[in-house]
Amino acid sequence: MFPKLCRPLSSINFRTVKCFCKPRQLNKYYNIIARANSSASSSFLCDKNVIFVAGLGDIGLDTSKELLKRDLKNLVILDRIDKPELVCELKELNPKTKVTFMPYDVTVPIAESKKLLKKIFDKLKCVDILINGAGILDDHKIEATIAVNYTGLVNTTTAIMDFWDIRKGGPGGIICNIGSVTGFNPITQVPVYSGSKAAVVNFTSSLAKLAHITGVTAYTVNPGITRTSLVAKFNSWLDVEPDVAELLLEHPTQSTKECAASFVKAIEKNKNGGLWFLDQGILEDIKWDKHWDPCI
Amino acid sequence: MFPKLCRPLSSINFRTVKCFCKPRQLNKYYNIIARANSSASSSFLCDKNVIFVAGLGDIGLDTSKELLKRDLKNLVILDRIDKPELVCELKELNPKTKVTFMPYDVTVPIAESKKLLKKIFDKLKCVDILINGAGILDDHKIEATIAVNYTGLVNTTTAIMDFWDIRKGGPGGIICNIGSVTGFNPITQVPVYSGSKAAVVNFTSSLAKLAHITGVTAYTVNPGITRTSLVAKFNSWLDVEPDVAELLLEHPTQSTKECAASFVKAIEKNKNGGLWFLDQGILEDIKWDKHWDPCI
């Protein structure tokens, strides 16, 4: 292990002491991260096993369809409510991919999440990618918004580490978390939702930086305003703006198909730590401002 | 009401259509926000009624002591556990200020928070400032971390709006939320905690922008690494770094007293939307990057 001098940081309030990083298990696992950052290929998803939480949702369904164009081996859709007709439609899209549906509510205790994942791993043996996409947008429902959008995503992520963490002999894996542009800058009329998405963005950026320890890489896809049933009508916090949905939709938006196309492009880029901004059919990797550095 | 052209935004992925803001109740309440942004005075806190959630905590206690130097009228401390000897100590510090303690766990249902606040408002008639400071740092406890650090803060904030919201005939008020530098950039070893603080930062920035509607201004104080019992020893997520506390403390930190001094300075500056960075005894207002704009 070589102590490594961090890059010099110029801001006055940075913790400007010389900081010596203590890399852990670095050399052995650099290949996982290197692989993650070099896979911008259209065949990347071919033969992969993918778990998609909320893969029948508005953005989810079109993203599932887009994924099925890539000849996955398995697409396991976990969603709160079964919609058999949609699952049938997906199954018929590509005979090369086995599509499975299993009911899952992300707000269950983490032990339940682990049980469900065990079933999936027992069956498929290996899972390559977990997409965490469960989300609600209703600022009248404070507990539910936070429980689904943040706690549920953290629990599902934590649960899959039992199977993926290289420290436990796992093979590593890839986590794709659905954030939102509101995690960068809020829609002020839905502060509870926006805050929950900021949590997702921040949480996932940590996961990416822990990849050398866990073997699990991570990034967020952050859709801009997308024409979904979620956005068509929703409650603002304390009704500060009853017309928030209508006002948002007066400005340029994107269709769920456009969003799904960018979404799968981002997955194919497979960039550890990517902060993907998906707006109006365009895909861009955001650079996050550095306000301070814990130096560890 | 005049439609107002937003500032032009240059980034390629901004929603660049001309956006006409719909200001609501602006003229009537501009004075509240103007007042909020012009009160950088050392006598600002004199005769004020302040509610301090977690005012007996590590940073809380020294901040309470610092507040008591300002001749408040009332300091109502809400904390999970009563510590009578500390409350006695605070009561003796300044006879001009009435110090009261009431037990409060921020994870109770919002109806309970409203009941407690009603008692306080009934007694004091008016409350000027609410400081939300409850926080835990233990990434083994996912639900508790999010429930205390984010959901509890949102619920307490939402509860006080019953008494402050100008749309309900209230007088407005000031919310000071304790975030953390980890809300800007995470300590990657505690991603759950860091994410919860990012949520607080994002949530509060929305509150500030809603002040023209609610009459309630808001800002965050975001301490850097401060030598508290919270930081002395804590669990990292999945034990990715068992020595995270020790490693952090190898770098420059600040004492709770230094933090408290900056904290009260920030309160005195009373800047709506302030993103106060309190590190190593220095107080700085952070400028947040704009990655997109909802244009509403």
From TrEMBL, chains A, B:
GO terms for cellular component: cytoplasm. It comes from Drosophila parabipectinata. InterPro entries: ADH_Drosophila-type, NAD(P)-bd_dom_sf, Sc_DH/Rdtase_CS, SDR_fam. Its EC number is 1.1.1.1. Belongs to the short-chain dehydrogenases/reductases (SDR) family. Keywords: NAD, Oxidoreductase. SUPFAM superfamilies: NAD(P)-binding Rossmann-fold domains. Gene3D superfamilies: NAD(P)-binding Rossmann-like Domain. This is Alcohol dehydrogenase. It catalyses: a secondary alcohol + NAD(+) = a ketone + NADH + H(+); a primary alcohol + NAD(+) = an aldehyde + NADH + H(+). One of its GO terms (biological process) is alcohol metabolic process. GO terms for molecular function: alcohol dehydrogenase (NAD+) activity. Homodimer.
